[in-house]
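Example record used in the benchmark description.
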Amino acid sequence: MKEESDPLGWYHVILSTYGSWLYGDPRGFRTRRHREHVEGDYKNPPPPGRYAERERRSRESLKCDPIRLPEMLRSVVGAALRDRLQQLGAFVLCISAGGQHVHALAKMPGSKVRLWRGAAKRHAWFVLRERGWEKKLWGKRGKALRVRDRKHQLNVYYYILDHAKEGAWVWKWSKPRSNP
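Model output (structure tokens):
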């Protein structure tokens, strides 16, 4: 019996730190699987105070304060995520690690995206723990959006690199130089 290979695809992987995106967030939010229609999004936020009560309840339910990665640890987290994804077989083109979000553009098998994303998150947390980190780190789940075409890929690539302007640690793949 011939085994079908899992085709590789480009994915925009998005990971958030614990408490960085809550229900009722004034920047806009989505309910899981869009079960409820919510006015606004991060580009066009809802009217101020519209979901304040929902945000208050969300904040009260947190087990600890929302996590914001200090600048000195962003490179540690970003490199750990990149390294684990590469060890698993992904080709990571670029990655940014900011205070509350990590974005990566990687080529990997579609059936492995969720598993590899979780393994990379776990690895980064263990690396931070070795450096004395004692708090939670990641929010639940994360996203991996399949890149539709070359234009979409370029948009994601430059979007990730632009996070450097916001203080994120940014890494991009470059072709290894050969020694003459």
